[in-house]
Amino acid sequence: MSTQSYIKWLGHAAFEIMLSGKKILIDPWISNPLSPVTLNEITSVDYILVTHDHFDHLGETVDIAKKTNATVVGVFELVNYLSEQGVKNTIGMNVGGSVKLTSEIEVYVTPALHSSSRGVPVGFIIKAPEATIYHAGDTGLFSEMDLLGRLFKIDVAMLPIGSLFTMDPRQAAYALTMLRPKAVIPMHYNTFPDIKQDPQQFKELAESMLPDVKVFILKPGEVLQLPIK
Ligand SMILES: [Zn+2]
């Protein structure tokens, strides 16, 4: 494990995560208005996790997978579609399932309360020695988050706070009482005027709901080192 482990926000719901020496992209909509990188700058990726097939999450998955040979992980119907688009390496899954990507990295598929055209929308829990990470995908508040909080010791949760399509700051803060993570990163806000939110307001609500939680308001391109201290 010579490489530094980290979570980097690429704007919207897109993250680059380095865990146990593997580079993982989640929901790589690299052309999003907040993105700190261009598609050309993305040259090596091991895995791409896609929560659902809306354009702002599927993003440039096909292009990136084709040029890097990354393995795409997602719901069965979605990855079948990606195979038809020429993506070579895929792992089709469904809610409740888990897969070991390597001897150190395990991915679980969680429910998400949202919509999609192919299969169902999901979230992911990624377990690795450095951290257990929960990316909620696009979702409303749902009570099974309490089960996720009991089953997994979540270190970092990425939660949408933009409202309109997902939870707003108040609901995302309430979600923390069920998920009980050590740290939270707000996402899916301020990409467009429609989902404008004040992340400071989320921070205050989050700290009132779960006093020990660390709120990391990342700027696009900013990195949170793992494990978190
Ligand atoms: Zn979205």
Q: Tell me the number of strands.
A: 14
The number of helical runs is 6
Morphology: globular
The description of the largest β-sheet is: 7 strands, mixed
CATH level-four homologous superfamily name: Ribonuclease Z/Hydroxyacylglutathione hydrolase-like
CATH architecture type: 4-Layer Sandwich
GO molecular function: hydrolase activity
Protein name: UPF0173 metal-dependent hydrolase Vdis_0828
Pfam families: Lactamase_B_2 (PF12706)
InterPro entries: Metallo-B-lactamas, RibonucZ/Hydroxyglut_hydro, UPF0173, UPF0173_UPF0282_UlaG_hydrolase
What does this structure look like?
The chain is of the alpha/beta class and 229 residues long. The chain has a single domain, classed as Metallo-beta-lactamase, Chain A (4-Layer Sandwich), CATH 3.60.15. It has six helices and 14 strands. The protein has helices spanning 55-58, 61-68, 76-84, 145-151, 169-179, 199-209; strands at 5-9, 15-19, 22-26, 47-49, 71-75, 90-93, 98-100, 106-111, 122-127, 132-135, 156-160, 183-187, 214-215, 223-226. The strands form two sheets. It has a seven-stranded mixed sheet with strand order 6-5-4-3-2-1-14, with helices on one face. A seven-stranded mixed sheet has the order 7-8-9-10-11-12-13, with helices on one face. A hairpin with a 4-residue loop joins strand 9 (122-127) and strand 10 (132-135). The protein is globular. The mean pLDDT is 97. Residues 13, 54, 56-57, 138, 165, 188 line the site of zinc ion.
